Amino acid sequence: MKIAGWFTFGLRLPSFAWFVSIALTGCASQPLYPDLATDIAAAGLAPEQVALSIIPLSQNPRKPVLYRADALMQPASTLKIVTTSAAFAELSLGWRGETQLLVAKSDLANMATGRLQQPLIVRGLADYDLDYSTLYELLQQLQARGIHSLEGGILIDRSLFADPTPKEPFDQSPQAYYNYQPDALPLGRNMLQVRVDSRQSTATSEGSAAKVLLIPHWQALHVKSELSITDAPCKNANTDGWQWLYQPPSQQAAAIKTNVPQTTQAAHLVVRGAFPRDCLFERNQAVFSQDVTLELALRTSWQQLGGTGFGALQFGKTPDNYQLLARHYSRPLPQLVHQLNKESDNGLAQLLFQRLANPSNNATDLTLAQAEQQVLLWLSQNQINTKGMQLDNGSGLSRTAQLSAEQLAAILAYNWRQPWAPEFISSLPLAGQDGTIRQRFQQTPVLNQARLKTGTLRNVTAIAGYVWDQQQRPYVFVAIVNAKNASSLGRPLINRWVTTLVQSK
Predict the structure, then answer these.
(1) Residue 383: pLDDT above 80?
(2) Are residues 382 and 497 in the same domain?
(3) Is 394:354 a contact under the CB 8 Å cutoff?
(4) Pick from 364, 370, 393: which is nearest to 125 by CA?
(5) Which has fewest Cβ within 10 Å: 20, 22, 429, 460?
């Protein structure tokens, strides 16, 4: 792929309307797809289940290929193209999420004694890279200042985002990584590694022989397994439907008053469910609510650092009389978008989308509804049709999100001529090489000839991005199938259409 050549020319295109008019008035050429309706019927799909938009991006004699391009469809994860495009346009390329530790100005004098009388504030500003080791390192900076006792407790400020409205689980795996619902303080994506081991053991009347280990291992948490052992095959092992019975630590107030070591203040977790005999199973999932995960991580980190006091955990907004003491930044926006589009990270997409509710400053109580209004406004200001478009949470993990192939193609065409085009284009998976399309188009002419974002739900298969023909001429390519058997019927059809375009001269 000769990136320098095609990309330099792409940046010179003054407008989407201009290159469409060039394509429409160019020389007639042999149609790529003589009978789309026949192709669709042969695939076992109905005409209303498919939408297609292919737009040349250069002075190309080919005409656009449009099939029900204006029909509103469920886009699945191709919707992430909308979110990442808006993020590049509305946030700066240098934008980073942030985590802050702040102390009361009235406590600055007390730092010499090592004891904070007012709450330490942990403030979340959409830092998606905040993991458990980073939280430990932030608290370590307090110790470097001589602070060893948090007698005033900790105040968690995640007010950048409004409290989410409870929703029905998207599917039967609400604890799975792809279902993570982010907030402004997304510590470890609220994920723990769950390791269950029943090898060379049998169940007893006194309890389960299956051991449950949570990673990170928290000293402040005692885990008891009450799993029943079954003869089911190990390949069927999972944690869906298990009971995770959490009991918070007791006697916290007494420990603070008497300066009892915090190791006595353990929380308890009882795990109940069924698990196969002689089996090892590992999975990343949400075990606790985000509030509980935060408290356990903070409490254990402080213990490991030798802290001797840990007051109550509170939630609220940062008062005016506080001063920044330590901070952590996420990776810059282009690197986050790279992860988001390559791996189709739903949690990161939703976090960036909600942050777009007010991209210019750190306002509070930002909502997904505000973000949708802001993104639709941005699209309209750039002459992109938004009629009927619904963005929901910005990730595509939604049954209500909808847009047309024509609208998505217009956004891709818009990105092509923007200064951030190199960052955006490189964030899309390269056919047969990486991301969600690493196993697709291998050993075919499409290998390395397309940058495509995939989208898959139970009733959706979609693909959107850029494709190059044999002469290295670029096209926007968007295909969406909404059908009961979308993946099994629609994916081979879309693959053939992409291959046809790549092989064209």
Answers:
(1) yes
(2) yes
(3) yes
(4) 364
(5) 22
